[in-house]
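G., the chain you wanted modeled:
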Amino acid sequence: MLDPYLIDRTPAFVLEHDKFQGNLRVIEELQDLVPARFLLALKGFSMHEVFGEIAQVATGATASSLYEARLAAEHFSEVHSYCPVYIPRDFPFISAIAEHMTFNSVAEAERYVPRMPKGKRAGIRINPEYATVETDLYNPCTPGSRLGVSAAALRTLPDGISGLHTHNLCESGAAELAGTLKQIERLFGHLLPDIQWLNLGGGHLVTRSGYDRALFIETLHAFHTTYPHIELILEPGAAFVWETGVLVATVLDIVNSGGATTLMLDTSFAAHMPDCLEMPYTPRIRGGRIITSAQQPTAGETRVRLGGNSCLAGDWVGDYALSHAPQIGDRLILEDMMHYTMVKTTMFNGVALPDIGIWQDESYRVVTRSSYEQYKYRLS
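Predicted structure as tokens:
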């Protein structure tokens, strides 16, 4: 069990190694049972300290930029790429690294496929017009979406295209995967006999408790039976590290104002957990429970908000009911902060980035620590 008081400096993103290994085992077992393979999407998780362990399970990695491609190539034997739009100066370098390259539009494919090195495989992203994500910020199938080509605009495969790529899920279940494949057959069935591979993107939360893995297996086998010539690829980022890491923070002050009690932390939601404000969502904390603004704590509980240390007025989340009266110096553990949260951190206000460390065998090891130079040289 993670002891937050053994973390030598906060804030700190901490990977709980035993839970991480549990997720890898689930993915490894599933990969043995389905006619599909898993890639790690770096956009969701880029803690390369553990890429060696992931590379023993995932068959490769997928990148959305040159820097991601370079990092992936250092640790994985196979790299795929998809960029919403390729930067012309970066394209020669990405195309030298990536085995598969997916393009976001027909025009872009026509522009770049002739420039790809021999032996590389080109794909095009499709929009299945199947929205399962309620928050528009994370929904690539909203009307007018800039991501992917609609069926009406893709009656035939452009020259040199051997595969299709879709990404319309976000922390979704097996039923949404089944619905996606049915929609692809309905809208893009005329192209399926002619492609060699189909990348189903991310959002497959196969390691979440309650995920219907039986339906997942059944769905992929059924599709493979109908289209045995198509190689199936999945590229989740969150599934590898779902519920495996936390952000540990320290209470530095307690502010009472307008009937609200705010615990002022040494971390920032705006800079270190921006997805909490984007989504928005309230992260779970150990030793407390989330309540609505209309709910009242029970006897013995204390209502609090959590406040960040940046000057943004909205840098806070809440409300919570704590089972104890909070004190300055308390350590808080914010749950499930490994996927997407770490890759979105900024140094707004000059706030130092959290440490990144690993909790393993009842001890803590720091992997990386930010510095003043890191802040200074990114700005000029």
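The chain has a mean pLDDT of 97.

Shout if anything looks off.
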